[in-house]
## 1
Amino acid sequence: YAFPLLSFFAGAKVPTSFPPESLDEVAFVGRSNVGKSSLINSLAESSVVRTSDKPGLTQQINFFNVGKLFHMIDMPGYGFAFVDEAERETWRELMEEYITRRETLKRVYVVLDARHGVKVADTEFFRMLNSKKTKFQIVLTKCDLLKLPELAKRIVTIEDHLKPLRNAVKDVVVVSSKTDAGINQFRKEMLFLTGH
Ligand code: GTP
Ligand code: MG
């Protein structure tokens, strides 16, 4: 499976800058530095999305066209300790606005770093998504950095966290943006989800 050319078409720091709804959308959220932007690049075989080894790089909601098929949305990281409380609150509100308002939003992918698993900021975000009746699915990335038995344990723990959450998709997506493990299967699922 291959995605058509990825192109940036809008960035929003406030809800009034959200582009009009058109194609189906999937959004990537997660703590800072887990690898959200890298994942979008891997899926699209692109280097259009900026990535960094320092947390806090993505500072607005970025909208990308996957050709004319659907949109992939890159979100700022949550739970980032180095920005002040007021700024963190502004981003949280921005993300919540996007998630609640967007009727074209098909699914939220919550990206977790395989080394770190589920942190407090993640469980809070799971609860928020669940209460807003947003379908969300966990994507475990950087799986190249774990040995198979550790990875298996991580997945079991994540599944336990998801059990009480009605709007969580039970299957965990396991990928690496570095080795491309799992990426092709993930492309297939995303194409299916967006009706292609
Ligand atoms: P913010 O925009 O700050 O929220 O971060 P982000 O979640 O978008 O992370 P980003 O994609 O910028 O990647 C963070 C760091 O993790 C970079 O140094 C990437 O090279 C690295 N990285 C991302 N995915 C993988 C992966 O699958 N494996 C490995 N080994 N490193 C990865
Ligand atoms: Mg980013």
## 2
Amino acid sequence: STVYLNGEYMPMHEAKISPMDRGFLFGDGIYEVVPCYSGGLVGFGPHMDRMNDGLKAIGIELAMSHEEWKAIALKLDGENDGENLGIYFHVSRGADTKRAHSFPSGVKPTVFAFAFEIPPAPVADKSKANSYSVSTSTDLRWKRCNIKSTALLGNVLHYQKGVDEGNQECILFDVDGFLTEGSSTNAYIVKDGVVITAPLSNALLPGITRFMLLDILRKDGRIKVEERAVSREEFDAADEVWLTSSSKEVGPVVAIDGKPVGNGEIGDVWVVAQQLFSEGKFNY
Ligand code: PLP
């Protein structure tokens, strides 16, 4: 496959970075994943805004415009096989000559992008949808989860707990028992027809799918949306539970720690939400 590295396109096996790269040594970088379905990018502007926010938050200076990023995305889409691709963007602080925690001066950020095949976009059809079973855990990550850092060990360990328990995600609760998010997704409950998700804070990633879904639901107006704290008790009593991420879109959860959500089947509110999301997702 063709990848982008520091201004050049090359086959993946020719892309080389230094072992002194701070992305490698410290996880010192920011990343994004943008879906691309038949050439159509989903949420490109918001994804790039979030990446710039992350770079600013960790003090990496990079002068790259949305247009430059988009040209990379479209070039990778054209050069790589597959109708549906995830475009991965990664900026690390760059390679130093020594290993020191302090930011090096005069080092250029490492900029890397590649494309990988993803399944066709989810459809709002209960008989065709992927449904998810999840584990739960106390959220043991750091306190700046709003930054989309490449340092994902905390997320990886939570996700793996889910996998080890035969599930596809792990939903996290803070020490006071309130929902934060999934290890790689944002999380929602539906109760009496109302969609409820944790408010944005440094405890969770401001998901682009979350942003688009809430915006789409509010503009449609049929389904009420609340951004507020969700207790573990409320979570366990939900009629429906959903996950969102760029690749899953709106993912229905049917089991939590081996117990069914509601009647254990995909819910009716999910169908409406995924349908609206499918219709609106290319408008961002
Ligand atoms: N939360 C975490 C921890 C994530 O890693 C992700 C994305 O991979 C999300 C939420 C969902 O974000 P988005 O909708 O922007 O893909």
## 3
Amino acid sequence: EEWKFAHEESPGDVQDLYAQEFKRLVEEKTNGEVEVTIYTYGQLGTENDITELTAAGAVQFSNASPGHLGTFVPEIQVFGVPYLLSQDNAVNKEVLSSSPTIYDGMAKDFESKGLKLYTMYPEGEMVWTTKKPVTQPSEFDGVKFRVMTSPILIESYEAFGADPVALPWGEVYSGLQTSVIDAQVNPIFFIESAKFYEVTDYLIYAGQQQYTTTIVSNAGFYDGLSDDRKKLLADVKAELDGFIYEAQEKANSAALARIQEAKPDIKVIRLSDEQRAAFKKASAGIGDSLIKEVGGDTAEVLKALRKEFGTSM
Ligand code: 6CS
């Protein structure tokens, strides 16, 4: 039996580390009865294509990050609301791996789209890379800022003062090179592996968001599994919650060192609490916009998550 697993990143990136370890554990625990085939970014299409392939059952598992999922499962955009997650990644790990708001509540939003929510994990703090320093919203004026395709991200960067442009990440390097865009945001490991630091000059830590990702499976596929196989998947998830948390931390700190070695004159700016407060204030209405646009129980979900992350306003 073959399980296809598609993700959104390059070989050796955080999602690939997860997929490789998932493959190793599933094959070991099924004594080779299940073989997992991994597809990296681009092999089966873009971020949005692999979600559709999973919903259609052509792929059994895939990463479907909230940043790309906003038009397919609109409720998931709650993870794009600025400053929702904790500054303490141990708290984020705990909530993302076991929150009842996510696994009992939001899981239903996935089910209605033919997807079974498997797991969520953080990939690291999102860092802005820009061609000029930005320490306050007014300095974003006229900056064409690439974001993922979820509508809430576009609204957030508008609120921060920038001109957001939604693009698949495969177009970001050349976009920065040719000044179609001037800036983008991603975790450090990804800025290094996709080489975005080569075509920007500043790394700016604003503390506004962690990159979060979701792994989903095809719902019909999951429902058809035996109880033993479902238990196996739950066991693998529990083992990988700890594994990926450490793996992403290591990947991010090693990548920052490598960027600074490859480009010694890159400038690192860590916004002060006061500077962060200005961006926080500028984007304070984003939660309410989401509630208005998505409706349903979004208000309750946002409130419950803020409580779990310890970031209630
Ligand atoms: O910026 C993006 O679109 C990509 N960033 C990461 C960290 N993973 C995959 C995603 O598509």
## 4
Amino acid sequence: TLPPDCPPDVEQLGRSTWTFLHTMAAYYPEVPSYAQQRSMKTFLSTFSEFYPCNFCAEHLREEMKSKPPKVESRWALGKWLCEMHNIVNEKLGKNIFDCSKIDERWKDGPKDGRCD
Ligand code: FAD
């Protein structure tokens, strides 16, 4: 890893961004209003336009064409994002994440309380 005062590389940017995106999805409303659903769609579309890794953003936009964001509930958004991340994981040869564990990983922490 780079010294902490260097500009982020693709890996560090990715880690920070996934942290933000999964945490945002974990706290998205259980029952979002139509306005909130529209805002989230706009956000994700804008995000995929400006994400500052060109080949990452291009790949994301391509995937979003056949798998548009699911924004109708907290659960749906979290699952969609987990699946998007898994597509990238697969492409990079990383482990596939179990999407039933997103709340434990990004919101509630493990049951043994070690993150409390
Ligand atoms: P990361 O993949 O950054 O994951 C961070 C943590 O998230 C993991 O430790 C794990 O606890 C958790 N996690 C893993 N998978 C999931 C999941 N499916 N759902 C929920 N939580 C999960 N890099 C490239 O080289 N090429 C690309 O095309 C590319 N595209 C990207 C597109 C986007 C939108 C983003 C945000 C990043 C992209 N990256 C890309 C970066 C890449 O995904 C990783 O972030 C980077 O390689 C660092 O990986 P990591 O092993 O630290 O874990």
